[in-house]
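help with this:

***
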Amino acid sequence: MPLLWLPIWFLCAKINPMNWDMLGHDWAVDLLQAHIIHDEVRHAYLLCGAPGVGRRTLALRFVQALNCPTPTQAGVPCRSCLTCRQIEKMQYTDLLAAQAEQEGKTLIVDQIRELQRSLSLSPYQGRYKTALLLRFEEAHISAMNALLKTLEEPAPQVIILLTADSPENLLPTIVSRCEVLRLRPVALEQVSRGLQEKHGLPPEQAQMLAHVSGGKPGQAFSFVDQPELLEERSARLSQMVNLLPVGLVERFNQAEQLTKKDEGGTNLRLLLLNWLSFWRDVTIQAAGAAAPISNLDWATEITELADRLDLHAASQMTAVVERSIGLLDRNINNRLVMENLMLDMPRLQLTRNRAP
């Protein structure tokens, strides 16, 4: 078929190799490519945005573009040579990574000091020695302060790449020494088309995953590669919906079980993040807003709750879940947090409950 006969949406959906095979964030790729082409690479970059939006992927593509020995053109890595493959797997000698051991935990100062010792050595394989500090908002204040010396006195051929949810959660002195790139969620239609092209998903499933991921390509691709993540999400939402009609005794028993199974709070945080997404959808529906909901596969329950609760009640419940996540992050007693949330949850019987 001649190219002109192809529908416009199909042409737009193609992931462009000139865009480092990324889905979205063209402006960020263009900026970083320009820095490479014009030999204006900064010594430190801060890539900000929600988890799953593409921060880590963009950072790795940048490292590939900096070090690829056989670029297809200036600033465009081949992504097939040994160097590019090693960087993709984060097994490249001159790529040093550091992050908190577990999401929601803390990156400690000893990790930064170990990183600094490695950065003091000359590059072994590539043009640059690169430090990739992931989820840097989880760094302890002492770790952030320790990194300042490296940022203030950068060694030649050393590049620091930080990822974080927001610059506001880092020390201003850290942010001021970095080139800041704020990554936004990608249009849902673009994520959907990318899933159809890259993974061969049917349009309906691709659309659902685009919504569930909130326009975050990395999260959408994770759901495809690890379908158990989608099943776990569904189980968490079932658990919440099925708690709505029951009394306090059963709710408190459930809170006890949840906290016993997860003393560290990591799974509780994931649970509440899914609940928060759900209640935000209810609030959107109750407000009659034009914004798309995230949990398309739960649209029936969301619509019924929006019809039966007023906007104030829906937004109040959203705030309760959001506050509960904040309390978990501050290491407040997990069981107390969950019991208080159970007290604030509305009590009503939905037309349809799902098996947990």
About this structure: Strands lie at 44-48, 95-98, 129-133, 158-164, 179-182. Residues 269 and 325 are 6 Å apart (CA to CA).
